[in-house]
Structure formats: C-alpha cells, structure tokens
Amino acid sequence: MTGSGETVIECRQITFDDDAVGLQRGRRQSRYVFDAQGGLTSAEIKDHLGNRLALEIISGEMHVGGQSRPIGEQITLILERNMAALSALLLEGTLSHGVTSFAALVPETGTLLPFSLTPCEEGWRSTLGETLVLDESGKILLLRPPASDFIFERTSRAFPKWTLEEDRPVLAYRQPTTLCVEELLLVIGTATRPATLARPLDEKSLRASGVFIGGTGVYDRHGIAAGLDIGYHHLLDDLAEEGIATLRYEKFASSVISLEEAETAQGFAEFCAQARQALTWLAAQSWKRSAPNVAIGHSLGGLVALSLAGDEKACDAVVLLNTPGRPFRHIIGEQQGWFAHASETSVNAAQDLASFNRHFIEALEAEAEWTPATVDARILALKRKRKLYRDLLDLDPITLLHRGRCPIIIVQGAADVQVTLKDAARLAQACEAIGRPCHVLIEDGLDHLLKRNAASGLKILQTYRDRRRRIPIALVRKIAKTVRSVLGD
C-alpha cells in the first residue's frame, strides 16, 4: 500500500508446455493499482514476447488502446487469464467483510462482468461456474473451473524475482516506403472512419483494387490488437506490392464513445452495408482508371465479401480467406468437439462444455434480453456480439454464393481448426454445381491466420499470439497471381 492509500499488486506468471491444457512455455508480468476505496485505476500486462496491454480508468472512463468508454461502476475484481492467485487475493480481502458481489474486468478483452459468489458445500460457487474450496480460516485453497479438469491449487512458493525487459516495441503499423500509402477518413453512413489505402508507386503496375473485410474480434484496421498481430497489414501491403491496391477501414466510426455499445448494434447487414460503401468509394477513384474491383474477406469477412459479390456491377472477383462454408450453428458444434478432444477432458467436463454450448445457442435463439438473471454469466460476456452471432446462426454461405457469378478464389489453411477443409470443399462444390468460376488454394501447415503453425492441441490457438509469425510472402504472391489470372491479366 502506498502513502496515498493506493494498493499496488504485482503479479508474475510462468507457464510450461502442456498440450492437454493448451499452455506454452512463457512468462507474463502484470501490475494493478487500486484506489483507497478498492476501485481499479490502472493496469499493465506484458509477456516475454513483447506483447503489452495498458489501461487507465479516469473519471469513470476506461482508456485502452487509443479507445475510451464509460464504465458504470467501480471495478473491484480482476479475472486475468490463468491468474487465479490474483482473483483469490482480491476475493479474500472483501469476503471477510461480507461482500459477495463484484464488478469484474477481463483485462485482455476489456470485458466487464457482474460477478457474484453463493455458498456451496465446499466453499463458494461463482457466477462463472467456478468452485472455490476454502480452508477453515476462509483462505481459498483450490479453484476448479467449469467444464475442465484443470484446477488451481494454493502453494507456498516464493514470489518470483525476475522481471521482463522492455526489449520490444509496442505493436504498431509502419508504412512501407515501397508503396503509396494514404491514411484517410472514409465517410461510411453519416460518420467518418479511419482507413488506409495501399497501392503501387507505379500506377502502370496496378492490376486491380480490392476492399478488405476482416473477421470477428476487436482489433484495428491493420489487424493489430493488444498483444496480438493478426497480420492484415502484411497481407494487404504485400498484395499492393503485387499490383493489387487494397483498402482497409476501421470497424467503428471515429466518433464512437462506447465501443461496447457500437459493437452491440452491429449485425451482419450492418457489416455488409459498410463494406459496400467502402467498395463504392474505391471504385470511384480516378487513379484506378479501368482496374477491376475485388472483395477480399477473412473468416466472417469472407461472408461479407460473398454478399458484395452478389452485385456483378460492383465486384469482378472475390477472395475468400479461411471463410466458413457452413452456418455458424454447425461450426460451433464442431469447434466444441475439437476443443473437448484437444483438451483431453473427462466425460463430465465434456458434458459440461456441451451443456454450455446448448445454452449459448438457446440464448441466441431467444428473444429475451440478456441479463444476469436470464443467461449464464459466461454467455453474458458475449453480449456485445449477440446481434452478429444471431444473424449468422443459420445463415448458409451457399445462399450468398448463389447470388453472384463473378469468379471466386478460395484460400484455405490446411491446419486451420476453426474453419476447416470441409468449409472450403462445400464452397467449391457449390460453385461447381452452378457453374460459377472457382479456384481453390489449399495451403499446408497454415492456420486460421494463414500463418505457419506446427503446434498441436490447444497450443495451436496459443500460437496465434506469437508476433514473430507472418503470412508467407509466397502465399500472397500466389493469391495475387490467381487474382490477375481470373481477371484476364
């Protein structure tokens, strides 16, 4: 505790390779500052790979990653990934005073959750389904997460003395000097959005121009989020080097105050309308001359690209990067099965996971508002994506595919465990059935981010955070060559 009454909590975490629970060897360091009333005022998390997240809470607003949003109440509990010791420390400091309800923050995503505890035979049961086992003095001895055989146990080990060096810069986009890169304010609807246009320096080398639509998640137009670089900027700049100008734009307007409210209001139709306006703007640029228009989409963004391709006058070709070929409902079920297998869970844990997914689907289908009283707290954490997920639940990508006739290029990473080879095959078969031109590029060893991934089990997903990986330039050149070919170049 400091002289001003603040409480500073330093955390250290070291993990080892364990395929069964998806852990990778690494180190993580975090620091939290609470005011004299027990409310969070700042947080910083960094890891051995150089990823860093910092947030501040000032006058009822949370500032993180260049965004700010109002928060309705004081944050009194932290639910950092795998940092059960931190949660236990905060809970023990308040449970002794009879407090059992908290405003919790998931710092990695910025999600705010209502969190409460109810007595159970072993100690306490949380709204997230966790069991907290207590000793006679009220200390938390063990935390058992739901739908998992993984447990956290209290030990008496000494606090680690190591610290992480600031040896890597914070993730940020850097414009290449070999391209003409323009930072724009694009008018979409009634508001402006930051956008980036990358095109060849030599206009004679321009072969096509494309609007890019990314997948789900909170990241900027370059594919950069706190601690994660999806790599969109590499892909789109590299395509521009190959003669395909690219336009990428922010998901939300510059004027957005509450990111959570803005995301809650966005469904599939809204994403499609935004992309259509961006493509219209791009098609009207004088430097394009007669260059064809292409829609490029990754994951969910591929479905938006398919929707754009239904207008043959606006779109001359579409590129689908690891794009679902089945409705969201089917993909959720398959991902549940993969996760249960990859995590080597027991029968009981697998049943708990299946039950959670059933409740999630039921919550999407229901008309009732999501509140702590109507849905599981773990589902409530996804409330901001409810409209989008509901729109996608039974949307068949083949229906979108049937609406257009322009050529489709399907790019699929063979090591993708989120959107699989089944999806690419279903899209290709649908094209063949209606005679729509289709080219399929299956890339061995590439994951959902189209990056090399030799990991197995849950470590496949953990590897996403390794910022050293890049989308192979050979793949980008292959995509560009195929685009030029289908456009008759």
Give a summary of the structure in a few sentences.
The protein is built from 13 helices and 23 strands.
Task: Describe the 3D structure.
There is one protein chain. This protein folds into 3 domains: 7-127, no CATH class; 179-326 and 396-486, Alpha/Beta hydrolase fold, catalytic domain (Rossmann fold); 329-383. It is 28% helix and 27% strand. The protein contains 13 helices and 23 strands. It has helices at residues 84-95, 232-241, 259-264, 268-283, 300-308, 328-342, 347-365, 377-380, 386-392, 397-401, 421-434, 459-462, 473-486; strands at residues 7-15, 26-34, 40-47, 52-58, 61-64, 67-70, 77-78, 101-106, 111-119, 123-126, 131-134, 140-144, 152-153, 179-188, 191-200, 208-213, 224-225, 228-229, 244-249, 293-298, 317-321, 408-413, 438-443. The protein has an 8-stranded mixed β-sheet, with helices on both faces. The chain has a 7-stranded mixed β-sheet with strand order 7-8-9-10-11-12-13, with helices on one face. α4 crosses α5 (300-308) and α6 (328-342) packs antiparallel against α7 (347-365). The N and C termini lie far apart (68 Å).
